[in-house]
Amino acid sequence: MKKKMITGILIALTAFAAPAARAAEKKGNKKMDKTEVVDLAGGCFWGMQEIFRAIPGVIHTEAGYTGGKVDHATYRNHEGHAETVQVVYDPTKISFEVLLRWYFRMHDPTTLNQQGNDMGASYRSAIFYHTEAQRKTAEAFKARLQTHGKFGKPIVTEIVKAGPWWKAEEEHQDYLQKHPHGYTCHWLRPESILGD
Fold it and tell me: Which alpha helices (DSSP H) does 38-194 contain, by range?
């Protein structure tokens, strides 16, 4: 009898909640119209996510894998993919170019397939753009950085159209929030490194 009563209550709650959930979803979609997404790689995603999450105008970050051909990539099986942070941002609060300024300060864009002690294609520098406007801005910014920046070596950052995205395992999400003294090879270089 109790089981039937609980089941009935759950069905009633579900019926009551469904219209509210659909309304919230529509409201959420309107909010998402004001955001943009870009996938940025530059070494281990732990350190990058920690810096991105604190930037004003960044709404959400997620660690994951992209840029390779392995479906349903995982930490143990992501050959060809780069460890990447998917950044959702509000372009009315932070422009894509300003976001790129943060990105190029948090990693070394001159080391091919390496950041600090981390070596391999997983740790390459890459911008996976979602829009043509992002592509143009990224290419112009990279060219300007190559000409006027102070990195001292050629910029090797790839600029590639975003493809399939595979979210990393939960243990890798917000890793440095969970482990404040955990491993990272990321820090912010001074603005002067950008050369303007």
Answer: 45-52, 96-106, 132-148, 175-178
Tens place of pLDDT for every residue, the chain, 196 residues? 433 333 333 333 333 333 333 333 344 444 456 899 999 999 999 999 999 999 999 999 999 999 999 999 999 888 889 999 999 999 999 999 999 999 999 999 999 999 999 999 999 999 999 999 999 999 999 999 999 999 999 999 999 999 999 999 999 999 999 999 999 999 999 999 999 8
SS (H, E, C) 15-54: HHHHHHHHHHHHHHHHHHCCCEEEEEEECCHHHHHHHHCC
What is the value of pTM for the model shown? 0.82
- Residues with Cβ within 8 Å of residue 51, at least 6 apart in sequence: 102, 106, 186, 188
Residues annotated as catalytic (active site), given as ranges: 44
The two three-digit tokens of residue 36, written as one number: 């943009």
Phi-psi category of 72—alpha, beta or left, where left has phi over 0 and alpha has psi -120 to 50? left
- Residues whose CB is less than 8 angstroms from the CB of residue 89 and which lie 6 or more positions away in sequence, other chains included: 35, 36, 37, 38, 57, 58, 59, 96, 99
Structure token digits, residue 171: 């243990």
From 72, 34, 70, select the one nearest 167 (Cα to Cα).
Answer: 72
**Do 88 and 37 meet the contact criterion of CB atoms below 8 Å apart?**
yes
The DSSP 8-state label assigned to residue 81 in this structure reads: P
